[in-house]
Amino acid sequence: MPTLIRFAMALFIFCVTTLTPVWAANKSASPANCTYSVVNGWTQTISYQCDTAINLNGATIQFTVDNPNGLLDLNNVWGFINLPRYPLNPSFSLSGNTVTLPLNFQISNVTLPANTTSNFSYSTGNNVKVTSFALYPVGSTSTTGTLTFSKNTGSDTLPADTSIRVSGVDTPFSTSIVFANQQTLSNIPFGTYQLTATGTVNGQPVSITVTPSQVTLNSSTSTLPVTLNYKSTAASLTVSLPIAQPNDISTTNVTVNLTNASGVTQPINVPWKSSATVSGLIAGTSYTLSANAINGQSNQYQFTFSPSSFIAQAGQNNATMGVISKPLPTGTANVTVTGLPATIATSLMFTHTVGSTPQTITFNNVLNGLHSYVLPAGYQYNLTSQAVTANGLRYSSTPVNLTIQANTTTSINLPFTAASSHYVSGWPNYLAMGAVTDDSPTNATSLQTRPIDAIFKYGGFGGNGDTGQIIYPIFDMETADQAKTITAYYQQHGITNIVKPVMVIYTAFMSNGVNFGDFDYTNLVMHYITLMMEAQKLQSYKTVQNPYPGTIILNPDLFGLVQQQDLLAQLSITISGISLQNALKTAVCFITSTITTSYGANLNYEQLYEAIRGQTTDNWTAMSTWDGFKMQYFDNCTANPVIPGNIIIPAFTNDFPGWVQSTNWIIRQFAPNITFGWQENLWATGTSNWVHQNYTASQLQSQISTPTVTGLNATTAYSGNYIPDFLVFDKYEMDAIPNATASGYLFNARDWTNILAHAKNVSESLGTIPIMLW
User: Fold this and answer.
1) Strand 315-327, strand 234-241: pairing
2) Distance CA 493, CA 450 (A)
3) If you ran DSSP here, which 8-state letter would residue 5 be given?
4) Which of the four pLDDT bands, split at 50, 70 and 90, describes residue 126?
5) What is the pLDDT confidence band of residue 203, given thresholds at 50, 70 and 90?
């Protein structure tokens, strides 16, 4: 096996939360009142206690969950503290969303004393919530009921996000379920409940009728059917472009902007001499159509629409595009390409801004030598190239800015340099070792006596991306400072290690389950801003002795959950309602614009922090003061996102792959010497229990590695113009000993052989990308 592993291995820890519902039903004729609590994580623990002593032999525990598909191993249950015996072969049975755990023991009396806690643990997908809990002693009778939900026979197809709310009228029990995942709700305490349903179509709420809207569960009506009825007001639009693609345009589609009355814009990619249809419009809503002009090499193409605005009717709506061609003044770019292997071709991309929209003119099949290209004059261009791989080497060039003037020739040299495709700049060529840090001086002292290559730290306060906040990169700064301190100590004592700060950064947090909140427009902009600041902060530590001063790991668990739960289409729909281009412009404006305060005139965000720091005693006090000014930058840029002329934001599609590409671009643009990679999970195919199987090489490739590569390719993270430096595989959230041994995370030789073979398969499928074991 080729040596692929070039990186630090480090402990990955995140916090779990405790949920404390205050009541649990039981079925006894003289019921015991019980309480329970849940600790959520990739393993989940339910603890419970009752106010009277209960013999658990022959008893049954039942609880309901909101996502039964997230239960990973029904035969793996452990725990049972404070019991005199361990139950025989504990395992779950699952019916709908109800989980049943029978308790049988070798002795007849296994009493849990009053007000004494016991528990049990099991494996979940970390996106399972417990919605009710019940303990049934032998011979008990039911005091809970069941609701079954179905679509009315006359109903249109329910929206995919249809959610049903069950709210107690005379009981404190309330819960919600998503109809697509669950149609039965069991273990509902007897009582009266109000039922409602909500859903959205194309981001707008729609009306869903629940029949009956109020139910009463009791001993005579313990199971009740409920139907949902939805009448669609959906409309669709077909946009036709009857004109063939002009010869001087490289883009095969025209992006049409469909804007509703609320100002939400949805892009439609219409191919030349063809049409495109978008569904999910709401009948009775007004829409407008527009498209930005496109520059070819010598002409500008403007677009008209018939109609340009309309009120959607239920069913099919149609619009036709027209094209107006206007000649442009042109100039010539002479580009001399050097450094590529013979016969190996690349692509050159000239990106410029037309109005407020970046556009790219692409030239393919470019070999070493002089090439002349005619381009529209009067624009500044950012010239980039497609990196190519050959013979184990990766050839890339540095982006170049140039301005094309009318009737003139501008000459540019574009040298390509080669680096090992198995090596990541700045990291050692041996199996490196790292450690988690809290960037405290105490940690620095302890690490001086045990040489390492990297220190790992979460960016931000919560270890989850700090949704809805803009966080000055104080953790990046203090972690990089700590790495410098440790490196200096090593060098003074004859140790050659250069310690690298590795920041774990979330711009979309799904470690606790499916969550689309980070893709709300404001949250997305704030994540962009924080990532840009973190990238710039790490880049600022570049020196001659340390030319690659830091590394970033992006969005743990995101790709794993997107693949496991098949979320890519839903995410793309969510993102399609916003403009990534506007979000990026606002973020770039934030980090480049200036404000005037009592600390100085015309200061950008970093200059303001430094000015404040010069008048304070420590970093934290300075950051706290800086926080009071950050929204001035944000509000100014939200209202008027002006960006420097030397930063050209590429055109990214408003979908999940476009968001991934924009994230890659941010790091390449603002931190060209910072290496980075995205994280992938062992459980992306559904569960990580495959590591324990005796797979053949072909079984491992077809059942585990190929689906993982397919999922990664769908994100586009490891393709395009801003390819990351490595891919991260994360083993598990906690140490195997003592907490995760019972759930199968104390790996043996077979397990590690499977993991390393899987990493090799994925690496080679992605062009031999280096792998970090984290």
Assistant:
1) parallel
2) 12
3) B
4) low
5) low
Cβ(675)–Cβ(725) below 8 Å:
yes
Q: What is the pLDDT of residue 11?
A: 31
Contact 75, 69 (CB under 8 A): no
> What's the rounded Cα separation, in Å, for the pair 576 and 202?
10
Nearest to 303 by CA among 322, 281, 276: 322
Mean pLDDT (whole number) for 728-755: 81
Dist CA 166 CA 161 (whole Å): 16
**119 closest CA partner among 107, 103, 131, 95:** 103
From the number of C-beta atoms within 10 Å of its C-beta (0-12, 13-18, 19+), residue 746 rates as middle
Task: Tell whether the model's pLDDT for residue 15 goes beyond 70.
Answer: no
Going through 314-422 in order, the beta strands assigned E by DSSP cover 315-327, 330-338, 346-354, 357-366, 369-376, 379-385, 388-390, 393-396, 400-404, 409-415, 417-420
Report the DSSP beta bridge partners of residue 223. 146
Mean pLDDT of 159-182: 82
Which residue type occupies 323?
V
Tens digit of each residue's pLDDT (9 = 90 or more) over 559-618: 999 999 999 988 998 898 888 999 999 999 999 999 999 999 999 999 999 999 999 988
Which residues in 671-699 are b (16+ Cβ under 10 Å) and which e? Answer: beebbbbbbbbbbbbeebebbeeebeeee
CB atoms within 10 A of CB 269: 16
Residue 386 has pLDDT above 90, yes or no: no
pLDDT at position 18 over 50: no
Rounded CA-CA distance 578/521 in Å is: 6
Question: Phi-psi region for residue 690, left (φ > 0), alpha (ψ -120 to 50) or beta?
Answer: alpha
- Report helix, strand or coil for 440: coil
Q: How far is CA 681 from CA 336, 510, 711, in A?
A: 43, 12, 11
Tens digits of residue pLDDT in 290-307: 998 999 888 999 999 999
**Span 78-82, mean pLDDT?**
86
- Residue 765's φ and ψ, nearest 5 degrees, are -70, -25
Helix (H/G/I), strand (E/B), else coil: 264: coil
Show the tokens assigned to 772: 């970090």
Q: Can you name the residues that pair with 319 across neighbouring β-strands?
A: 239
The closest of 66, 71, 100 to 174, measured between CA atoms, is: 66
pTM above 0.70, yes or no: no
Highest mean pLDDT of the ranges 56-60, 539-543, 734-738: 539-543
* Sign of the torsion formed by the C-alpha atoms of 443, 444, 449 and 454: positive
What is residue 640's three-state secondary structure? coil
First to last CA, the chain: 20
Omega before 724 within 30 of 0, i.e. cis: no
Interatomic CA distance for residues 499 and 16, integer angstroms: 30
Angle at 667 between CA 662 and CA 671, to 5 degrees: 150
* Percent of the chain whose predicted confidence (pLDDT) is above 90: 46
Q: Is the peptide bond before 770 cis (omega within 30 degrees of 0)?
A: no
User: What is the full DSSP assignment across 693-752?
Assistant: S---HHHHIIIIIHHHHHHHHHHTTTSSSS--SEEEEE--SS-IIIIITTTT-S--HHHH
Number of neighbouring beta carbons within 10 Å of residue 763: 23
Describe the chain by its helix, strand, coil percentages, rounded to 5: 20, 35, 40
Q: What is the C-alpha radius of gyration for the chain, rounded to an integer number of angstroms?
A: 30
To 5 degrees, how large is the angle CA 61–CA 65–CA 71?
90
Contact 448, 486 (CB under 8 A): yes
Considering only CA atoms, which of 352, 358, 399, 355 is closest in space to residue 376?
352
| CA–CA gap between residue 727 and residue 717 (Å, rounded) | 10
The overall average pLDDT reported for the chain is 86
